[in-house]
Amino acid sequence: MMMKKLMITAVLLGSGFLSQAQEVGLQLYSLRDQFKVDVSNTLGLINEWGITKIEGGGTYDMPMEDFKALLAVYNLKMVSVGAEFGDLENDIDKVIKNAKDFGATYVMCAWVPHDDNKWDLEETQHATEVFNKAGKVLKENGLTLAYHAHGYEFRPYKNGTLFDYMAENAIDFNFELDVYWAFHGGADPLALMKKYPSKFVLLHLKDLEEGIEGNNTGHEDVETNVVLGTGQIDIAGIVAEAKKLGIEYMFIEDESSNVVSQVPESLKYLDALD
Predict the structure, then answer these.
(1) What is the CATH number of the domain that holds 96?
(2) Which residues is 80 bridged to in the sheet?
């Protein structure tokens, strides 16, 4: 356990993350199956990995205070919480309360409901309006809204993509770049970071298995999530750019059934980066 904690410290110190207030965290969805079995032991596993910052938003059917007590036991801080699009649109007070209860700084939305695979300008404009309206209220309450694009936003629009429309019209919200889904949807995550250096405030670090072709549906077999640095995505370049841009948190998200063995390997990969 101690060696793992030392390892993650090396990741942060060696890559300059601590000096620039950047940290490698974990998106709790990665361990969704493990949480179904034992919440406390799963949080303990994250602690053993040396991770202290997490993104989640739920309590796994536990009372809020009991779950927060476990977070304290395992030295875990919920810095970002997820929010449903419908709540951002229709019940912003619920979103604010949940974020405040956890002491989070960021609110992220990972999916905009749409019919089947229909996503065009109409859906894009509606989502942008909702995010701007909700983001303004969240900002007034000391919170930052970040939309996690899921791949379908990178469909062509004018001389760019529908994501470009969202980014250019994002006034009161920002973005969480999931590098897997951006790449899977046909975009270049590193190029996006360079094109919109002030728009991305959070990252999901996730790699795509070699040989897998993406699409614009926002869906893929979770087993195509592989150890960072072993897939198709330029994780090293992305991490270096995130450091340059001062992105505060980079959450590892591994949705595969091999998550427990793969996350330590991904941490070792990050540790080896300059």
Answers:
(1) 3.20.20.150
(2) 55, 106
Give the whole-angstrom CA distance, residue 88 versus residue 245.
Answer: 27
Whether the Cβ atoms of residue 141 and residue 170 lie closer than 8 Å to each other: no
Verdict on whether the full-model pTM lies above 0.70: yes
Partnered with residue 108 across adjacent β-strands are 82, 146
pLDDT of 122 higher than 80 = yes
Among positive and negative, which fits the CA dihedral 214, 219, 222, 227? positive
Rounded CA gap, 96 and 23, in Å? 24
Average pLDDT over residues 215-228: 96
Q: What range defines the domain where residue 148 resides?
A: 2-272
Coil, helix or strand at residue 162: helix
**3-state SS class at 110:** coil
Number of structural domains, the chain? 1
Residue keyed to tokens 């509606």: 126
> What DSSP designation does 29 have?
G
